[in-house]
């Protein structure tokens, strides 16, 4: 039996997804969550094989919940189920370790296939998402973005603030003014950031900041 925790803040969506899953006698929804925080707690208490997560939820969104679930329960598969197919969501979800990404507008059979695949340790993308991924793979952009997010994720919040401004081309003095820090403190942060990212100069760090999505595109 494949045990599933279903997380979505809309009761009607949860009911519809549960109804689809119930058509497969080997899949059982063991618990439902209304937000990402509940999904994480239920993962710990129910130890499901798969967690189905909506992306936009209160308290803790699906992407953050996915990352936390992968940290606390690495053997639990994560499937993102959403109405949003934008590339940034796909990149973040897969970078955070999600094994599947399905659109709510897809064929119900995709939901069953996706849960089965991820429960078995495989990956599953709906056809529309797969098409987006293939187009993103040109030049390895998706892979680089996922790697950059993972590396930047190891920094402290303040270090990420400094990295974002460094990526935007600001000098140490300008960063200090923006963040209300003395220039010497900024230099210390920059040195620590370079060491944590494993890069040799500001240009390499700036590239990681950009690929990780820390730099505004405006």
From TrEMBL:
GO terms for biological process: phosphorelay signal transduction system; regulation of DNA-templated transcription. The modification 4-aspartylphosphate is found at residue 54. SMART domains: HTH_LUXR (SM00421), REC (SM00448). Residues 3-119 form the Response regulatory domain. Pfam families: GerE, Response_reg. Residues 148-213 form the HTH luxR-type domain. InterPro entries: CheY-like_superfamily, NreC/VraR/RcsB-like_REC, Sig_transdc_resp-reg_C-effctor, Sig_transdc_resp-reg_receiver, Tscrpt_reg_LuxR_C, WalR-like. Keywords: DNA-binding, Phosphoprotein, Transcription, Transcription regulation. PROSITE patterns: HTH_LUXR_1, HTH_LUXR_2, RESPONSE_REGULATORY. GO terms for molecular function: DNA binding. CDD domains: LuxR_C_like, REC_NarL-like. PANTHER family: TRANSCRIPTIONAL REGULATORY PROTEIN NARL-RELATED (PTHR43214:SF24), TWO-COMPONENT RESPONSE REGULATOR (PTHR43214). This is DNA-binding response regulator. It comes from Planotetraspora thailandica.
């Amino acid at each position: 039996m494949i045990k599933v925790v279903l997380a979505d803040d809309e009761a009607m969506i949860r009911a519809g997804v549960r109804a689809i899953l119930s058509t497969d006698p080997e899949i059982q929804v063991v618990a439902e969550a209304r937000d990402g925080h509940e999904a994480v707690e239920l993962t710990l208490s129910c130890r499901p094989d798969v967690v189905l997560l909506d992306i936009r939820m209160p308290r803790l969104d699906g992407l953050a919940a996915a990352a936390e679930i992968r940290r606390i329960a690495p053997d639990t598969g994560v499937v993102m189920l959403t109405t949003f197919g934008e590339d940034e969501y796909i990149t973040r979800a897969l970078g955070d370790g999600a094994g599947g990404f399905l659109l709510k507008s897809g064929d119900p059979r995709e939901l069953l296939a996706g849960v089965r695949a991820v429960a078995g340790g495989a990956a599953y993308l709906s056809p529309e998402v797969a098409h987006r991924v293939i187009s993103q793979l040109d030049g390895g952009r998706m892979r680089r973005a996922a790697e950059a997010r993972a590396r930047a994720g190891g920094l402290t919040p303040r270090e990420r603030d400094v990295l974002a401004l460094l990526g935007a081309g600001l000098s140490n003095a300008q960063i200090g003014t923006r963040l209300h820090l003395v220039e010497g403190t900024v230099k210390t942060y920059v040195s620590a950031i370079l060491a944590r990212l494993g890069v040799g100069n500001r240009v390499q760090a700036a590239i990681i900041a950009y690929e990780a999505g820390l730099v505004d595109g405006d």
